[in-house]
Amino acid sequence: MKMKIEMILESEIAYIRRMGSYGVGNIQTMEKLKTWATTRGLLNDESIILGLTWDNPATTKPEDCRYDVGLIVRADQQISDSVVQIGQVSPGEYAVFEIEHTAEAMQQAWSELFLELSKHGYQVDDSRPITERYAAVMVKNHQCEICVPIG
């Protein structure tokens, strides 16, 4: 897997939260956010959608796992809607893994990235969520990223 270290700046997001086991439900939440954003003209070639995994399924009951799907928005955008909440992405240092945008590649990356981090001497910062980053320009090339907070 290709890995780089990146400082991610604080960003404002419009997001939808899902509670439950990670998996198919996350995809449905992603589609709901994309539909919401499309109807408001917020998706374009510069859009970045994030999938934030807040909980470790090895230590959190499946029904308590939190997954947020968010669209990075400008801080000056006035978004008032019952579908989404407004929040921030925590800034800091992240190990960023570039992967193919397929279910198989995502599953493989999730199974290997912790070993890869350990191999390079990095520790996961559990105070920030691991983030799947879907930049429109990368998705067009069938690529996406998993950003793991390190500290």
Describe the protein's architecture and organization.
The protein is globular, with a radius of gyration of 15 Å. It has one domain (about 1-150): Multidrug-efflux Transporter 1 Regulator Bmrr, Chain A. The protein has an 8-stranded antiparallel beta sheet. It has helices spanning about 25-40, 105-120, 135-140; strands at about 1-10, 10-20, 50-55, 65-75, 85-90, 90-100, 130-135, 145-150. The chain is an alpha+beta fold and about 150 residues long. The chain contains 3 helices and 8 strands.
In short:
With 151 residues, the protein is α+β, with helices and mostly antiparallel strands. It is built from 3 helices and 8 strands. It has a single domain (2-149), classed as Multidrug-efflux Transporter 1 Regulator Bmrr, Chain A (Alpha-Beta Barrel), CATH 3.20.80.10.
